[in-house]
Amino acid sequence: MSELQDSNTETPIWAIFGDLMAALVGVFVLILVWVIGYQLELAQDLARETEQRQVEQQRREQLEQALAGPLAEGRISLRDGRIGISGSVLFALNSADLQEEGRSLLASLAGPLQDYLSQREELLMVSGFTDDLPIQRDNLYFEDNWELSAQRALTVTRALIEEGMPASLVFASAFGEQQPVAANGDEEGRARNRRVEMAPVPRLSNDG
């Protein structure tokens, strides 16, 4: 009699199999949901990255269009990502007062430069350079080429800000007669060295 009762209380094998299959199906469903969610996340990331690249490409094209005319006219140069503006376009000799031609040029560049920088971790460095001729003694404004190049860089920086460039995106630096792009042996070379350059540079991290 006891053997008959034991056989009646044993769990049928089909019930165990059913529970196992239900557990496997549950696990499969969870994995499937995770895979679908992961694929959706990847697709969204790809879409965002593609959109960001398209926006950046559009900004780059706008900047190139803004530079095309002045480049063709020889008023600016583009070398290693640095925009060089001839000193004669911006200033009279030994002066840091911006000429109308230079102001007009900077006004045409301010918007595209701002758009280019707005979504990048970069700032615009405006650098002033001179030739190697010393400042004349009768010059009442500048003691040396360092001071002249610094004031010219500041003048260009302020002009860009006046044209709408956020002050947080631009800063000035001075190099004087250092880092010439041509030999100072003749007037043509010295004229090339009297310039202002604008170049995007990485924004310093606030960490540490």
UniProtKB/TrEMBL annotation:
Name under which the protein is recorded: OmpA family protein
Regions crossing the membrane: 12-38
OmpA-like domain sequence ranges: 78-204
GO cellular component: membrane
PROSITE patterns in the cross-refs: OMPA_2
Region (Disordered), start-end ranges: 181-208
Lineage, top ranks: Bacteria, Pseudomonadati, Pseudomonadota, Gammaproteobacteria, Cellvibrionales
Pfam families linked: OmpA
Keywords: Membrane, Transmembrane, Transmembrane helix
Entry-linked InterPro entries: Bact_OuterMem_StrucFunc, OmpA-like, OmpA-like_sf
Ranges of biased composition (kind: Basic and acidic residues): 187-197
